[in-house]
From TrEMBL, chain A:
<dbReference type="InterPro" id="IPR050901">
    <property type="entry name" value="BP-dep_ABC_trans_perm"/>
</dbReference>
<feature type="transmembrane region" description="Helical">
    <location>
        <begin position="69"/>
        <end position="94"/>
    </location>
</feature>
<dbReference type="InterPro" id="IPR000515">
    <property type="entry name" value="MetI-like"/>
</dbReference>
<feature type="transmembrane region" description="Helical">
    <location>
        <begin position="186"/>
        <end position="207"/>
    </location>
</feature>
<keyword id="KW-1133">Transmembrane helix</keyword>
<keyword id="KW-0812">Transmembrane</keyword>
<feature type="transmembrane region" description="Helical">
    <location>
        <begin position="5"/>
        <end position="25"/>
    </location>
</feature>
<feature type="transmembrane region" description="Helical">
    <location>
        <begin position="239"/>
        <end position="261"/>
    </location>
</feature>
<dbReference type="GO" id="GO:0055085">
    <property type="term" value="P:transmembrane transport"/>
</dbReference>
Automatic annotation (TrEMBL), chain B:
<keyword id="KW-1133">Transmembrane helix</keyword>
<comment type="similarity">
    <text>Belongs to the binding-protein-dependent transport system permease family.</text>
</comment>
<feature type="transmembrane region" description="Helical">
    <location>
        <begin position="29"/>
        <end position="48"/>
    </location>
</feature>
<feature type="transmembrane region" description="Helical">
    <location>
        <begin position="296"/>
        <end position="318"/>
    </location>
</feature>
<dbReference type="InterPro" id="IPR000515">
    <property type="entry name" value="MetI-like"/>
</dbReference>
<dbReference type="InterPro" id="IPR050809">
    <property type="entry name" value="UgpAE/MalFG_permease"/>
</dbReference>
<keyword id="KW-0812">Transmembrane</keyword>
<feature type="transmembrane region" description="Helical">
    <location>
        <begin position="123"/>
        <end position="149"/>
    </location>
</feature>
<keyword id="KW-1003">Cell membrane</keyword>
Amino acid sequence: MKRAVLNATGLLVALFAVFPVFWMISTSFKPNREIFSSTPQPVPREPTLQHYREILTGNLIPGVTFTDFFVNSLLVAAATVLVSGLIALLAATAVARFRFRLRTSFLIMLLVVQMIPLEALVIPLFFMIQRLGLYNTLPSLILTYIGFSLPFAVWMLRGFVAAVPKELEEAAAIDGANRAQTFWRILLPLVAPGLVATSIFSFIVAWNELIFALTFINDQSRYTLPVAMTFFFGRDDTAWGSVMAASTLLTLPVMIFFIAVQRRIVSGLVAGAVKG
Amino acid sequence: MTTLTKAPESAAGRETPVRRRRRLDHVPYLLLLPCALVIGVLLLWPLGQVVVMSLYDLDSVRQVRGEREWPWAGLGNYAEILGDPFFRTVLRNTVLFAAANVVLTMILGTLVGLLLNRLGRRMATFVGSCVMLAWATPALTGAIVWKWIFDDTSGLVTWFFNALPDGLSGALFGRANWTGYGWFNDPLLFFAILTLVVVWHSFPFIAVSVLAGLKSVPSELHEAARVDGAGPWRVFWSVTSPLLRPVFGILVVLSTIWDFKVFTQQYALAGGTQDRSTYMLSIYSYATAFSPPPKYGLGSAAAVILTLILLVVTGFYIRALLKQEEL
């Protein structure tokens, strides 16, 4: 009896959590007459790829297709991941492998900057991007997202670097490998899974960001996916089928990646408070 | 030539041990340099800059490009927004919204965490995975889907209220036909839906963190308490919750920080920045600065106020973390 109550509550929670996601995917496969029918169908009766075809082939804004936005987002995210991953790896190695004077100060600084409300930085960064001549370019976003993802990326990666036994590196050094060789041949391969997790985190930051993309880009052909999405809704007659198809395409890559690294994100955020 | 080439060689040979040691000392700093540079230029410098900008009258794009000087405003911008009843309403709404969302997220998250801990293994995995999907959904698409669920013609909620018996619906709400009912037009209702969206998106993190915390509590403690005759409620208050207190502290702080600066969901639900009755601090700052006519100085002042509030909260977070972990 008690077990049954617990299980029923569990199912209710699961339903609450998953329903909007389910409804998004389900709607994206429904023909318009089912979407706008007076009695909603949980599952599409006549599933169709019509909305996906529409957004993938049609022009959202004259001359610009959904694929263009997708590519913009992908470029921005990929560049962010690469640069931020590299810089984070160097910094994580420094804090995990060396004891130096400013080490603790640096770690505290990392924690503090993670708490800066990025929304509050949009005005000064807008001025900076303008003066650098980067306004209306994708690098303006790449630069910004590197800054945003870096503190947590270092925080996350330092645990992975620390987990690689120092003895391995020392053994390599005794065998005559220099620092660079030890780094490339020993540390990097062992830290690779951590680097993947960190990259996924940076990818999600860059892929989901809205405010800065909204502010720094004026030219519609350079919009990223989240900004382009805002064009779909808020109009008098929203084409919900297309909106849900686009939302699904925006969500799925993030969701797949996120599930892969969520443990890391939890432990990073709750850093140390939760052991085990 | 020969002396020139020879001299450095011998000098290098002599100095090698010293130089290598000194170079090793530089290694960590060299490794940190790019990271410190990026954080300095992209986070810390703008943070200082927003404070500076809040002290100037900035209202033209030519000032943005550095083509026109910045007239000093002193604390004028602060005087202006703090004296503006609309800003005070925005500030009040932000604080109330954040407080309500933190409380609801913490309660729901903790309950779900406790539930996950009690469920059988397969059920816990199933519920946990479902909960994770809500968390993994980008804030933007999550908000858009909820906007569709609350659509005034074909949305699921509108359908549901239409499906209620007309008599009941009329007696409870004073209307039977909900088609065309603007769920987002009444600010209170707007904030309620925004709360639903934010809580839906953020309770999974709390649940998962609480679950992780519970797993780290030795089960002997619970057994001992139960043997001593404590009921489940008593066990939670006297055994579990003190052990989880550090986790709770950090979770509350993180939630506070996140809920204070909600932007994406609010922007998506409101369909932009036109509806001023739904403003909160971050969107107020953004719209003040970037909607024509631009008022970057005023927007900066609002951003500084938001930052100050969060900085205080962050202080607690860092203190809690430092107590927890040897860095």
